[in-house]
Amino acid sequence: MADRRQFITGIAAVSTVGITGCSDAEEEPDPLVSEARNAEPRNVSTSQDGNEFTAEIRNSGLGSTILVDLHWEEDEETSPSPAASTNTFIGNNETREVTLTAEPPAWTTGYRFFYQGTTYAADVLNQGGQSDLDVWIEDLATGEVIQEQRITLTEEEERTVEFETEHEFEGGFEITAETVS
Question: If you ran DSSP here, which 8-state letter would residue 103 be given?
Answer without folding.
Answer: P
